């Protein structure tokens, strides 16, 4: 590990070749037969999503109905056990839930404050995002005629995920790790024997899970967001090109939070890319906005999609007005 600090302290992300399809699509990875940890973790998170229903696909209308019923059931159950019977103020209930977690000893570095962000709009449908104390992000998943309704919709899906995340099945245990690694190996046609080798994608995934034993899937997903963004931004490829091992990269970034410094650096990398390929930021922004919209309407955790959009918008704002990109 002596060389790890030397390798990583001078890493400046190098733009990876960009393609038109979704950045997180498995077909985009250069090493299709050796998936990166971020790819494996993204698939694992999707498989553990509250709203993910394996089996026969359902229509959009049916999926939205099922999602609304699930959200209402969890919210009503929480209301019954917390407040007795009667209508619940879901915004207050979500804040109360996280306040209770903090009082019971949860490790919340920034306190229990739940933060709402309304998407600028002069007419319906209105959209609202909510960020939970740990960093997870959810959004209004219904057609909302008012800003208040959009806030309630976002709070509902966030409360459902917060409550469900407390279930023992969401804790990373030895049994969970074995199942997740087995599923990941099967999904990517990998060799299960590679799980014992941290230099492989499957092995790195197992290493990450082992290091986060006892945490919940939401907590793990927050950590995973950093690696997904590093992959999307080309930083992981740059570190591989500098002969940094996966173990070194994982050890370095496992304790890094996604902060303004990291976002600013990624925005600068995209500005440099724009100088080499005019229009790349707008192209990536369109992709990020489509991903964010699709995930929001499906009731999924949104942070990685929202961070992509925000980083690209930051880069765009630093370049100048739209006319300068024409």
From TrEMBL:
Pfam families from the UniProt entry: LIX1
Quick one: a GO cellular component term?
cytoplasm
Q: Which InterPro entries match?
A: Autophagy-related_EPG5, LIX1
Coiled-coil annotation: which residues?
A: none
Q: Which N-terminal stretch is annotated as signal sequence?
A: none
Q: Where is this region: Disordered?
A: 1-30
Q: Which GO terms describe its biological process?
A: autophagosome maturation
PANTHER family with a match to the protein in the record: ECTOPIC P GRANULES PROTEIN 5 HOMOLOG (PTHR31139), PROTEIN LIMB EXPRESSION 1 HOMOLOG (PTHR31139:SF6)
The text of the family note is:
Belongs to the LIX1 family.
Please report the name of this protein according to its UniProt entry: Protein limb expression 1 homolog
Native species = Crassostrea virginica
Q: Where is the organism placed in the taxonomic lineage, from the top?
A: Eukaryota, Metazoa, Spiralia, Lophotrochozoa, Mollusca
């Amino acid at each position: 590990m002596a060389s790890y600090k030397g390798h990583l302290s001078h890493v400046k992300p190098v733009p990876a070749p960009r393609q038109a399809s979704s950045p997180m699509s498995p077909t985009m990875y250069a090493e299709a037969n050796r998936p990166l940890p971020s790819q494996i973790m993204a698939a694992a998170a999707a498989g553990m999503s509250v709203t993910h229903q394996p089996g026969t696909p359902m229509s959009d209308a049916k999926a939205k109905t099922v999602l609304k019923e699930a959200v209402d059931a969890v919210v009503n159950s929480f209301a019954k056990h917390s407040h007795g019977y009667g209508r619940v103020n879901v915004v207050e209930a979500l804040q109360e839930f996280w306040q209770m977690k903090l009082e019971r000893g949860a490790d919340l570095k920034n306190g229990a404050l739940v933060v709402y962000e309304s998407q600028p709009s002069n007419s319906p449908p209105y959209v609202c995002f909510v960020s939970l104390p740990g960093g997870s992000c959810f959004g209004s998943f219904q057609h909302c005629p008012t800003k208040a309704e959009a806030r309630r919709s976002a709070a509902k899906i966030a409360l459902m995920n917060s409550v469900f995340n407390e279930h023992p099945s969401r804790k990373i245990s030895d049994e969970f790790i074995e199942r997740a690694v087995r599923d990941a190996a099967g999904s990517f046609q990998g060799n299960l024997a590679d799980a014992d080798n941290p230099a492989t994608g499957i092995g790195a995934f197992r290493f990450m899970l082992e290091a986060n034993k006892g945490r919940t899937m939401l907590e793990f997903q927050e950590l995973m967001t950093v690696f997904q963004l590093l992959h999307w931004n080309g930083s992981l490829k740059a570190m591989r090109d500098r002969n940094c091992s996966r173990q070194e990269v994982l050890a370095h970034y496992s304790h890094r939070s996604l902060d303004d410094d990291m976002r600013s650096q990624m925005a600068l990398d995209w500005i440099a890319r724009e100088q080499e390929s005019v229009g790349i930021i707008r192209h990536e922004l369109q992709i990020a906005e489509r991903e964010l919209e699709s995930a929001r309407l499906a009731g999924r955790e949104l942070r990685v999609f929202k961070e992509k959009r925000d980083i690209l918008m930051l880069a765009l704002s630093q370049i100048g007005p739209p006319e300068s990109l024409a």
